[in-house]
Amino acid sequence: MKSSEKILLVIVQLKSDRGTWTFEDLAAEMEELVNACHGVVVDKMMCRIDQVSAGLFLGEGKAKEIAEICQAKEIDTVILSHDLKGGQQRNLEEVVGRKTIDRTQLILDIFARRAKSQEGKMQVELAQLEYLLPRLVGQGVELSRLGGGIGTMGPGETKLEMDRRRIRERIDRLHRDLKDVSADRSLRRKKRQDDGIPLVSLVGYTNAGKSTLLNTLTQAGQVTHDGLFTTLDSLSRQLILPNHQKTVLSDTVGFLHELPHHLIESFKATLEETSSADLLLHVLDVSHPKFRNLHDSVMSVLRELDAHEKPTITVLNKIDRITDKDVVREIMQSFKNPVAVSALSGENIPRLLAQIASELSTLIETIEVALPLDRMDLVNLAHNEGQVHAIAYDHDAARLSVSLPKKFAGLLQKFSLKE
Ligand SMILES: Nc1nc2c(ncn2[C@@H]2O[C@H](COP(=O)(O)OP(=O)(O)OP(=O)(O)O)[C@@H](O)[C@H]2O)c(=O)[nH]1
Ligand SMILES: [Mg+2]
């Protein structure tokens, strides 16, 4: 594969989405994404669109202008910062005369390059094929008639399947295999819950410092790197808090502004670590000029995972890069449950550990109760909502030791064996 593909970036801003992301912000992020595929951005152009053209997406004049730049600068690939429909992509490619891909395809390409575990590769391939299927014409065509490179490879440098019938079969197969992996994972999770060990999950924008924090807290040896989407597979490690409480801390794939829906769907198994967590550590790189945008993007992915209302600590990271501590204090004002740290230097990590312990202690209570035998509803509740560590029946009561969320513990409190 050509590793120095020459790229023309077309940064699109639609009239409808003139929000908090400026052209410059979008361009900076697109450049990072291209870097992650080892492409070289030779030129970039801005493109404001008031009315999307059904056929070409852009206006005809703009498409011709792109074609001229491609000629003059010997561009290999045109990448749009906005998603295209299949027909628009083909038409645009025709006018431009170069391989033309959209943002989703670029992101999928990065994932395909980075996937290491079997599960990661399956998830990426599934996302790629589901993206591709509605874009094929007839029985199937080359993804791009204009050569390979960025956007055309599956995980592990395999060539993406291009035959419609075989893609369908492959998608079914991947769904089945991923379901098995997900079932394995649920079993392991259930075992941990039964042991009463809370799961603390790192979430955040890609490059926020999640893996660095995992390493600092647990010496996990997770790979860290200044670039986008370094981590794709989840990794869990035991973390013992200063109060000796055992927890499991998990690191997972980072989020991105408007993360393609296909990816979220196919990474559901990996992201279950997030949806089933007892506590989220939302890691935010406060040295990033647009850190508030990054925070909001993460919140919207969490919403999609239905995890946005989970107990959360906002970990304001990379404070070693901010010399004025008043600025840090001011930033702290605007976030829920903030702790400002440097995952790299270790600054304020003890404070974070204390905060984790304090959050967890407010969530779960372990009680010993003797429930009357005519209150099997409460025995069921203990089983369904908590972790029953021990249960014994005698002639008039079921004696249980159970850890469960405080709101349920309250219902059992009057049968407590301790004063
Ligand atoms: N200065 C500074 N750099 C940090 C800090 N934490 C992380 N970094 C750097 O930020 C970059 C990204 O860190 P990672 O830990 O790989 O980030 P991540 O959130 O795991 O990223 P993805 O896996 O891509 O989602 C690396 O170059 C780290 O060394 C910090 O507290 N201070
Ligand atoms: Mg990481």
Question: What oligomeric state best describes the polypeptide chains here?
Answer: single chain
Query: Which percent bin holds the helix content?
Result: 40-55%
Sheet/helix structural class: alpha/beta
Strand runs, count: 13
Which spans have pLDDT < 50 for at least 5 consecutive residues? none
Helix count equals: 14
Q: Separation of termini?
A: 70 Å
The name of the CATH superfamily of the largest domain reads: P-loop containing nucleotide triphosphate hydrolases
Overview of the molecule:
The chain is α/β, with parallel strands linked by helices. It folds into 4 domains: 6-109, 3-Layer(aba) Sandwich (Rossmann fold); 115-178, no CATH class; 197-347, P-loop containing nucleotide triphosphate hydrolases (Rossmann fold); 364-415, no CATH class. 42% of the residues lie in helices and 20% in strands. Strands 6-7-5-8-9-10 form a 6-stranded mixed beta sheet, with helices on both faces. Strand 1, helix 1 and strand 2 (40-49) form a beta-alpha-beta unit. The radius of gyration is 25 Å and the shape is globular. The model has no long low-confidence stretch (mean pLDDT 89). Residues 204, 206-212, 224-226, 228-231, 254, 317-318, 320-321, 342-344 line the site of guanosine-5'-triphosphate.
